[in-house]
Every structure is written in C-alpha cells, then in structure tokens.
Design goal:
Helix 1 crosses helix 4. The protein has helices spanning 23-35, 44-49, 68-75, 87-96, 133-138, 172-176, and strands at residues 58-62, 79-84, 101-104, 119-125, 140-151, 181-190, 195-203. The longest helix is centred in the N-terminal third of the chain and has 13 residues, at 23-35. The chain has 220 residues and is an alpha/beta fold. It is globular, with a radius of gyration of 17 Å. It contains six helices and seven strands; from the N terminus they run H-H-E-H-E-H-E-E-H-E-H-E-E. It has one domain: Vaccinia Virus protein VP39 (Rossmann fold, 3-Layer(aba) Sandwich).
Length: 220
C-alpha cells in the first residue's frame, strides 16, 4: 500500500481507535513526524475543493500517511476517519490529530475494514489500488464528495512511482467515476516536483434528484 507519504509497509490487519506506545515507540513516532514535515503541505487540489466538505460532516482519508489531510479537515470541524496500513504513520496521526478516528488495515490484501459505513466525503491522494475503487465509491453517502488525485502515465519519465500498476491510464479516473457527477477533472503535468497527475472531484448523485436540488449546486 503506497499512501500519502509514499511509504510502502506491510503490517497485520488490525483496528484501533487510539494508539499509546512506550518510550521507544514514541521516539519512533517522533522520528516519523520529523522525517515527513515536508509532506505536511496540503494538496492544492484538496485545498481548492475543500469548501465542498462542510464542518461536522464525516470524511474518510484513505491511505492517509502522515495525516496532512486528516489534520486539515479535523481543524475545519469534520469528523475524520484516517485509514492506513502503517502503524507508525497512524500513531503520528493520532498524536497530531487526537480527534481523528484511526483505522489500521491492509486494504490490498484483506477485506474492506469499513463495510457498510458511508461518509459525506472520501479523500485520496498519491495512492492507487484499482480493486478497492468500488469500495471507495460505495463509501459515499448520497450527495457525498470524492476528491481524488494521484500519479498518471508519463510519470515514469520524471520519477517515482514509475510502475504502470501505480499510474493511471489516459482518462482512467473519469472512467472509474463514470457513475458519479463530475464537478472538476484535470489530467496533465505539474512542476515542483515534476509529475504527471490525474485528479477529480465528483459527487454521488441519485438520478431521481432534481436539477434544482441544492445537492447539485457545487460551487466552483
């Protein structure tokens, strides 16, 4: 599982709401936080569309890594669930965002850990595991918002990730979200650092909803 911080770690699948380690473990968490301070900048794509996620709404941060978006949305008043495979990463998240609900799970090799739960928003950045996409979409409430951003084909020419398994094909994100209402979509090249990305903002809207419904008024 390659999360928001780019780390690939394999750990047993367990669940928890809080983590409290001994001194050695606490030191490890502090080292993790220090090593990932440069990852703390909020994705500009997420920041641009964060207004679509209202305070007090339930938000799921998938492959949360060091928890930059968990902290950002928690500070905005959202009820955030932070999901990742890395115990060390989640301990860091729990320390910096005590209000967050922490879920440790290997979503690539074990059942989806939040079966039956739905959220007002799902946020995913720098992560791609195609088999889990149906679970991501099923986790959206009616009217729920998906904010997704990750690397695309072409990135192998400028850096990591370079394996095609972890790179979106041309317009693939649009295809994966074909049953959602697309609010915004971009597919192109960014600098600092150089990278090819696709990113989408989409909403789960029932066909029966009227075009005049407030749920369809996605302010740009």
């Amino acid at each position: 599982m390659r999360g928001d911080d780019g780390i690939a770690v394999r750990l047993p699948c367990v669940h928890a709401t809080r983590f409290c380690g001994d001194d050695d473990q606490s030191n490890l968490v502090l080292l993790f936080v220090s090593a990932h301070l440069d990852q703390a900048v909020i994705s500009p794509w997420v920041a641009r569309w964060a207004h679509l996620i209202k305070p007090a709404q339930a938000m799921l941060d998938v492959a949360c890594g060091a928890g930059r978006h968990t902290q950002f949305f928690a500070q905005r008043g959202c009820a955030v669930t932070a999901l990742d495979i890395s115990l060390v990463a989640l301990q860091a998240v729990a320390k910096q965002t005590p209000s967050a609900r922490i879920v440790q799970a290997d979503i690539e090799n074990a059942p989806w850990p939040l079966e039956g739960e739905t959220f007002d928003a799902v946020v995913v950045t720098n992560y791609l595991w195609r088999p889990v996409f149906p679970q991501l979409l099923a986790s959206l409430k009616e009217g729920g918002i998906l904010i997704y951003e990750t690397f695309a084909v072409g990135n192998e020419t400028v850096g990591k990730p370079s394996r095609l398994d972890f790179l979106l094909r041309s317009q693939e994100l649009l295809s994966l979200c074909k049953d959602l209402h697309i609010v915004a979509y971009e597919d192109g090249f960014l600098t600092e650092p150089s990278r090819f990305v696709q990113r989408v903002v989409a909403a789960k809207v029932a066909a029966k909803m009227s075009a005049s419904s407030d749920l369809l008024k996605f302010h740009l």
